[in-house]
Structures are given as structure tokens and as C-alpha cells.
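Here is one chain, start to finish.
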Amino acid sequence: MSIGSIESDLLRQAVRGDRASLSQLFLLHYSSLQKHIASRISRDLGRLVDADDILHHTLLRAAGGIRSFQIRQEGSFPAWLKTIANNLIKDTAKRQRRERRMVDIPGLDRAPGPSNSWATFIEQFAGNATSPSVRTQKYENARHLRVALIALPDDYREVIERYYLQDQSFAQIAESMGGTKDSIRAMCYRARKRLRELMGQSSLYFSG
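Its structure:
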């Protein structure tokens, strides 16, 4: 079976709602999309925006819209991903330009906001890189983690985000999302289990 036919099969299944197929589909285009985004971000914008965050939100938007994606011809899916990325980059650049036009008051420093960078989150869980082979494995771990997170159902992804990224307790998550602390703990367990299923050996740091 050719790569094109494999991709077509995955795409049809993803459009029907199969999250594992969506995860595999994202993996197929991960590197090329990552390079595309890096090439489209200007040097000035790159000082303010992490390309990996653009990548994450591109995949997130794609996951949200996959059920309405129209399969037309070969190459339409990667083209769609690049269009989403381009629009995100344009929107981000416009927002940065608006912020630059704001009048700064001399002597008043803006307090940095809380760090909620998905790139930082992925980096944290991908492990430390101390050799070329370890760096390669780290990249693969990060790649699988990112697409697996995107492929999770929305409530699973939210509880993982709140617990691991925002450092919220189960009680705090329960208050925000509704439900009990025990039900949120159980949901987090199911979310980690689903991540392990999607990621295979790359998911060992979610085994707790």
C-alpha cells in the first residue's frame, strides 16, 4: 500500500471521528508543517512568539474542524494545515503590531503573565537531552506527545492541561469543569491511559 493510500484511509477515518487515525495523520505531516511555520515567522515575530506554540494551535484548530473537512484531492489536507498556520501567524502578527502601537508610560513595566506555553509543557515532559541519540528520542517523544494531546477528546485534553500545565488540583479542576474531585481524578486517569494508547513507548512519563 502506498503512502498516499495510507494517508487517504487515515483521513477518511479521521473525518468520521477516529482520534487514533487523526493522531497518525498529524504525525505524517508534523515535520513538514513545523518547517513551514518556522519559515513563515519573521525574525521580529520570532522574538515574541514560539513557533511550537503556533504549531500546537494549528493542530488544535485542525482537530476541531476535521469532521467538516472536505476530502477533494491529494494534497488538500496538508494544504489545509498550512492555511490554518498561515492565518494564525497573520493574526498573531497583527496583534503584536496593535500592542506595539499602544503608548507605554515611562517607568511603568508590564508584569509578565503566567507562563502557559505549550512548547514549555512539551519540553518539560519530553525529557532532558544530553547526547545526539537522546535529543533524537526527545524530539520523537515531543512529537508523539503533541499529536496525542490534540487527538484527545476535549474534556480529556482540558483536564490534562489544567492538571499538568496550569498545576491545578483535582478540587480546583472539579470546581471549574463541574463534577466531584473523585470524578476528575478518574477522568485524569482515563486521559493518561488514552495518551499511553496513542503514544506507545513514548508515554512512559505519563505512567503515574
